[in-house]
Batch of 2 targets.
Target 1
Amino acid sequence: MSSLSTAVRRTTLYGILAAGALLSVAPYLLTLNGALKRPADLLSTDAWIPAHPATFANFTAVWNQYGMSSFLLHTLSVAVLVTIGQVVFSALAAYALARMEFPGRDWLFWGYLATMMVPQMITLVPLFLMMRELGLVDTYAGLILPTLFGTPYGVFLVRQHFRTIPHDLEAAARIDGANTWTILVRIMLPLSRPILATLAIITFVNTWNNLIWPLIITNSDRTRVITVGISALQGEHVSDLPHIVLAGAALALLPLIAVFLLFQRHIVRSIALTGLK
Amino acid sequence: MIDNISPTKTFPGGDGSRRHPAESPPSSTAGHRRGRGRIRATLEAYLLLAPSLAGLLMFLVAPIVGVVVISFFDWNLMGTPRFVGLANYREMMGDSEVWRAMRNTVYYVLLNIPAQTVLALLLALAMNRKLRGLKVLRVLFVLPWMAMPVALGIVWSWAFDPQRGVVNQFLALFGVDGPAWLSSTGWAMPVLASVNIWQYTGYTMLFLLAGLQAIPESLYEAADLDGAGTVQRFFRITLPLLRPSMFFVLVTNTIGSFQMFDTVYVMTQGGPGGSTDTMNYHIYQQAFQLFRTGYASALAMLLFAVILLVTAVQLLYFRKRTIYDFS
Amino acid sequence: MSASSRRVLAATATSALLLCLTTACGSSGSDTSSGGTVTLRYAIWDAVQEPALQKSVAVFEKQHPKIKVKIELNAWAQYWSKLQTQMAGRTAPDVFWDHVAYFPQFSQQNVLADLTPYIKADKLDTSIYDPKLLTGWQQDGKQYGLPKDWDTIAQVYNKTMLEKAGLTQDELGGLSWNTTDGGSFVKALQKLTVDDNGKHPNEPGFDSKHVKQYGLALGSANGQTDWWDAAVQNGCKLQDKAWGKWTINQPSCVKAIQFVQDLRLKYHVAVPASVTNTPNGASLPQVMARKQAAVVWDGSWDLNAYQSSMKGNFGVAELPSGPAGKGTVYNGLSNALYAGSKHPKEAWELVKWLGSQESQKIIVSQGSVWPGIPTLNKDYVAVWQKRGVDVSAFSKEAEGTTVGYPLTTSSATYNVKVQDAFNQVWLGQQSPKAAADSVNEESNAAIK
């Protein structure tokens, strides 16, 4: 194979990949670009024409006038709480399922696996009714509780990882008199940082972007999260607000991107790990 | 930049050779097997499991029981529920809109999963080379995964606008008169599928890339000695050893695709002509727009059954051909 | 710290969290009434009207220092689904915009508070309201809301474009259409429609695929601002009688729907449905802001949206007349009090305020909507006159032939079914007859 054809092939590969990468970020760029346009320009210019002159007025409006600041705060608190809950409770359950022997363990594990296939839509109506009877409609508790204690997916993920940690470490600690809790906290968890980080990231992103449950369970601005806040601004009678929607969209997208770019090294690696377990 | 994804470094057992369950009995409690020790271990285990199990029972198992019960009633969530026996199921069987929604859902999954998997695999193969700049590109490819469908809905709708959308403007450069994408019964669903493919291809690629990097280089070297070509290497070594990753990706993506909701909700609301009315959207509409809660519950049971069936088929297929460490 | 004490701590923390989430923290979101201050929730669906409402509410809060009002905005497409979910969850807003279309269903579900005792106790003079509006919110001698406004549909046009085509406001308002050749209405729209090469639809070589400017843009999720008006102008009745059956598949209705479809697909004088169809299409004010059309059929509630993008360069003309003469949809909203409100007294104060002369004067002064109190109509006209827009077409239409929203318990079903079916009609994917038949049948089947 001549070096010339290698160079050609390499250039082609780079070209295709670069085009793909551009496609990946284009919708983000279009959102940000649109959010920076003045309302009149937004309607009269094509989407790809750069915002000129750029304005922050849309962001100010969406932040102050349309309550996005509090929606973002609600979203953040919910996402953080759910993430903490899921990581902690999934790790506890996963340890029991991975490393302890007790009656009913295998049975339980298969139960967890089976519930992974339950569509969210199926639980929606009963969950709503349950929250209504508990008086938790339109409360943070109602928003958070269903996913706080971990998902079967999370338990499965962490359990698969725990099983790859050598037993010797644990056995040695037992001989030194360590109890289950110490082993979990001192040995298993420190060795599982990547997988716990993965679970945290996946949970955070999913909770941040979740639409359907908040759509049903929240109904006032007191609990409204950003997905519901943005969708409420789309449709007949509010449709002359595209600049507001775009600014809101940019505000909803940017924090995740920031988190991602900050931790991309760990995120990319640890997400990939989950597929191997 | 990003470290090479090499789970083998950190994780014994991540190398594709799975430990069989029989070979690795949990030994942690070995010394406490008898008497009080055993009871204590059991107690401890259930204590650790308690929050997760409570959550599971209350927010997943109980609702499933609930939805079965509700499916035998006629109820709008407000008045008194009226027991109707199997009437909801009977109506479902004869409801052409339900079967259209089911066809749409399957169509969406078929548009989505093969294309996304193949693209992700090609991307992973490209990314698996030792070339400069790939790590930066990899980060960019994963960015769409985090995109909030509701936030991007407006941008997508504009991108596919027949006259002023960037898609048709781009096509016009090549003299192609693009269709009115979201108003076309033929195109609307492929558009929704491409939005999803855009979102998840990079994410899927990560899993496959990790799988690729876990394949020992020595296998390829051996193949090279046997004079195997690129194509042979791919089909004889890469693909078979990638099966565990493929299995994971296919099963989770398929379950996810069956539940697509956000994109339909913001972009088409099931139209035009019901061509993007998926099961999940149809159930939502029956439950929370028309408040036919009992009927919606029956539909939810149908969707659940189909997902179970499809997952079971996938399990059986892969079980014959792979050694995925489940237990 | 020993391992066991740490475990105790962890367990305590967990149970505290649980306890907090299920009890105390659960109440963090419920109705706040700290220090005797009550916060009322007020649900609306129109962003264009929000600024004016905020002004009115600010005055109310000043007069009632112990009551705060939070306006909650949900787009029309989600408003009703949301409101009904809220009612099912027993957490609906204290006060909300009610619509005639949903009034029968809500009164059947007992979710609206009867205002009669409050009216009596406060000796409220309800004779200030237009009787037509007031009685619309009555049933069995009970009052379920106070009139907020009224609206009709008219033709909003771009002044520059109309002048260029040599048409005046009076001419535009005096046009007529028929189902054979489209009449003078279609002829005028042909003048207003120009393709990229400057050709009109009635000229040879007109390129219907590349149109620079359309004569007309139509758009409506349920028919109010497009085919319902044409239907009235063709003598069609949407319903056989109040609380009766839908009759939108009668020949006179189907012919009107056919005409509206023809405007797009046969005469090529109206913006294609792919641009205007809900949910992904552009709204009428957006179409006008983009200069894609010269004329739109729209309700008075959107005037402020046109003002913000066209700054007085628009006018309002009456709708054309059809085979059966002139006609439009007449409608009005009310402010309703949620029967499950935890603060009914305060909520009533708000409903009373929103229905008062003072509040409606504020709304009118912003040019927001026509008031529920007829004596203020002239003030509304004056506000728009100052902005250079003659809005009398709306009131002239209100005095002529009008049709109200069908009174039925199946509006939810109708609204869900009609959108997709009629989107297809405008796209040419379904015949008017087939769409009308299916929507009619399904809506009637859902009547309770």
Target 2
Amino acid sequence: MRLRLVPQETKFDFFKHARLTFGASIVAVIASLVIWAMVGLNFGIDFLGGTTIRTDSTVQVDVGDYRAALEPLELGDVVISEVFDPSFADDQHVVTVRIQAQEGDEAVTPETILAIQSALQEAVDPEMTFPSVESVGPKVSGELIQTAIIAVLASLGAILVYIWLRFEWQFSVGAVAALVHDVILTIGVFSLFQIRFDLATIAALLTIVGYSINDTVVIFDRLRENLIKFKQMPLRDVMNLSANETLSRTLMTSGTTLVALIALIALGGDVIRGFVFAIAWGVVVGTYSSIYVAKNVVLMIGVKRDWSKPTDGGGASGTQFANVDA
Amino acid sequence: MLQIPLWNRLLIILTVLVGLSFAMPNFFYGTVERHNDAVAEIERTGTQTPEQEADVAAWPSFLPATLVNLGLDLRGGAHLLAEVQVEDVYTQRMDSLWPEVRDALRDERDTVGTIRRIDAEDGLLQVRISQPEGMAAAVAAVRELGQPVVSLTGGFGESTLDVSGAGDVITVQLSESEQAATNDRTLQQSIEIVRRRVDEAGTREPTIQRQGSDRILIQVPGIGSAQELKELIGTTARLTFHPVVGRASSPDEDTDSRQMILPSVDEGGGYYILEETPVVTGDDLVDSQPGFDQQTGEAIVTFRFNPTGARAFGEYTAANVGAPFAIVLDEEVISAPVIRSAITGGAGQISGNFNVESSTELAILLRAGALPAEMTFLEERTIGPELGADSVKAGETAAVIAFAAVLIFMVASYGLFGVFASIALILNVGLIFGVLSLIGATLTLPGIAGIVLTIGMAVDANVLVFERIREELKTAKGPARAIELGYERALSAIIDANITTFIIATILFVLGSGPVRGFSVTLGIGIVTSVFTAIYVTRLLLVFWFERKRPKKIEV
């Protein structure tokens, strides 16, 4: 008996609730933007500059004690948060202390770090160890933000061009719309839950872009094939057919990827949890968006139907199918 | 029909075997690492201890011994991003140019009158002449001192100096292309010196890389903290010899321009007033050794100059017998002996309050050369070895579980075909490690995440093919034809989907740094190997099976 995520043959009408799904996507995007604007992202030191110190102690954590110990050092904004992970021993209590960037272009001075460490050892636990200390100067963090933005825009641009070359411009608009949707939704989730947003998160965002486009391309590829095969079928039906034919594959791939990622979230340790969570979330929205966003956008713009002619002008002939259901 | 030529089959098998053989040492990480370390140590020292011999013997030498480097976040260590203050060098260059400018202008005394160097911004040399009418001649004379820029990056024929005159002041500075060439040299020199200092400490596989026009990235695994690393490389050990003008009791006393006040090391609270322009600098040193003074038995550091330094030093000491000169190390006067006779041999010694250790250390620092410019540290990260070990363990567990889950999922969904895909998947992970070892890439924690992600996504190409075979089976042209069509028709989707992901991996690689780069490398390699295993290896397995069984009906 084979495991089947979906029946052998499906005939879902993915546009039946297009208003609902597409509307929900738009609402989610707007909500994400609003949360982002209102709450803001919980930037890590990569982007803000500053220092994070990870402490490891056998003493039960009372954040107040840590705060009181650091108060006299006058370090400005200090964020103290306890870290939990199933892999920790029972009497292992891990905390990250984040200190804002101090004056100047450079990383925090070793004297400051030593002062912090001895203050904590004195106030909380003389046996406390510091498994990692990371410090980023404001000059670098500013550049890292810039690089991150460039990286995201460059990826979107490169994909726009590639899909345009391989397919048609309508497809690349649809694909990029889906990608923007995924990226914004991920940023929204990061704002909402105040998950730390750092360089690794950017890598995760780009991975989401890669994964989502992967999914979208497979459906588009089938769509192109079916458009040639079924010249007379309305665009909407061809799209439904293509999505149904690839549905089993889409769910299989997303399923295996999610299974692997969930193992990593549960057992991969707390250091990369945020990073892996971002990718896992991206796989979910990426799968959703390739079915419900990318295609809808292409359907709205319409697409060239006569693939036997090499040049297009197809945008015009395709528009008769535009606004079918959106 | 399902034909794969023999040479093609052999090529596929060979590729897999080579990949796996390079991956294999990683499964015996500890043994191979000790083997490699012992081999390197024996080569370095020329002798071997019984332990080293045992370590060497533990891994057969005919097997590949390449390993994936573990990143700092997995092994623990320190990471520094240093910015080299390249402008420092402009000022030094101007200082050393001043005597030449002075001599050149003195030759023109009749037209330019008397000359005086005036205080200027860093990197500028400004000279006031008493007869502004002679400005044109003065500028021309100073321009003569410029040489064509020597650099690979253009600016050919351009002079090294920018000379301009306004009113009665001549301003000299390095020309733009010379500044660029200087920056380049400064950075290369700094990197070389940092490398030598880190190597002196004998750490394993340090990464010392240039970043951009004025930065150096230094990553040293196994070192205790970024602070230690900074102490190791940050000591500038800039040695200079200056004429002594007089003594001072506080650092704030008034001095003439072009003079400076520096504290003395041995006499607490004592200060010297020195000429700012050094007679000789440590750049002209060729050797330095710790030693003992034969009369006093005191620990000293001896040094020897190159011919240029020896000549300058000889001329100066000959002209100034009886006057004191100061030996300055890192802005502190180590000692200020009186010149008893001209020192022409180019060798000398520094005495101060040294003990054996400190004299040895100073000699190393002098030998390793001075950093040409100061460095500021923009980014520092220390990761403890325990955290790294925990991360490796967590990553391993997660990867194994993810792997098992995906395999079960595949076999449950596709039966025998799932088994083939699973074998391909295992080979895929092996190949990723093989390629990582082969190119000497560094595995980071996000890199492990990248591999786990690849495990999930690598099934994609297989799934595309299998799903396609299922569809082709419906139109019933026989199993062989269905398999062939499945591969043929799934190919464009596989290629398109993977190229787009590969584009992303490339962008991450180009723009990312550190851990992000590690992630992009495993992701990129994973894409290539998974396409290879899905298209070739799974297919080859299918063909082998098909040729043996010749099934009339297949179920995917």
